[in-house]
Amino acid sequence: MNPIHLWHACVALLAGAAFAQSADIPAGTRLDIRLTSAINTSTAKPNQPFHAVLIAPLVDAGKLVLAAGDTVSGHIKEVKAATQPDDQAILNLSFDQIADSTGTRTSLPAKVASVDNARESVDADGRILGIVASQTGSGRLNQGINKVAQKYPGLAEVLGGIKQAVLKDTDANIDYEPGTEITVELTKIVSWNGKAAWPDVRPVKPEQRLADIISREPLRAFAENERPSDITNVMFVGSEADLERAFLQAGWSTAAQLNSASKLETFRAMAEMRGYHEAPVSTLYLNGQPPDLVFQKQNNTFAARHHLRIWRRPGALNGKQLWICAATHDIAIDFSEENRTFIHKIDSRIDLERAKVVNDLLFTGLVKGLSLVERQDVPENMFNATGDKLETDGKIAVLEF
Questions:
Q1: Are residue 153 and residue 64 in the same domain, yes or no?
Q2: In terms of domains, do 242 and 102 share one?
Q3: What are the pLDDT digits (tens) for 343-373?
């Protein structure tokens, strides 16, 4: 039993229906949650409470067990702040309860499995382990300046001033704002007898008209070097204002233009090992056109982020504008010898990113229609413009606002 990756057409049959679903949820099941309270190791104390919300449903044999929106509560079991450059912050969360919309609740024996788009790591016991400030680019520069100071204190003072004007010292404390997303793993069986309801979301109609539109849409976007790159895997039916409202409400950010200022801020984010929520993305083209909209979701590192590019398409459906999207998940940064620059590496399982976009937007309550449409003649063994493999079932998700 695992969180569903994408709401299916059966949503239409269960829309609005709330029912009791008794289930023994096995150990090892993973749940995706979003913090609704802030946690910072510089100020947090043991036993301090925190709260979160389930953001992806849990389905067993086609039956909804836990609904997105169920709430999670817990407390801080262990915390250690990073006060010196060589310190490593530690955060250990204890999950106490999960509750549905009616107030039915039960204990939640679980540990952290991963923190989405985080610079921190998670050990086998579920403890979140922070970075070490002295090991970042900014920290290494400090060490080099300190060595210079042993022989040339005047020069070191000048270099230190220049460094501080460009780069700040890294705060290595674990600092999670509300909206931080965490995957937890059950450590014991959980017996659940709560209520769950599918959202009132219907298939996008008319189905034949939608299928005809999809059949004419391009499958891939292209890089500036004209290499085929990301796959178009989501379509939106609605206005530009609909899209902007939904993504911002779901916690996504817009991207800055790719220019000298944003490149400098990107360098700073990498050297200081922190996030840059408005970081630019490389330009991809659809039918020779750059994207009309770009959204991304980061945490506290530029190295990992959800991001997508959206193009306005000709025509309309149900009197609404059409948009097509290519969504991928950046999971690491690598240096490209061919391009002589740093590039992001993506998760090859791009259907998971399609599901991420769908679940995030459904959670806002702004989506009225959802379909998963087959596409013909989707080639196998595809790669993006920088050489990452693309694994997909070839379907496209369509969301109507």
A1: no
A2: no
A3: 789 999 999 999 999 999 999 999 999 999 9
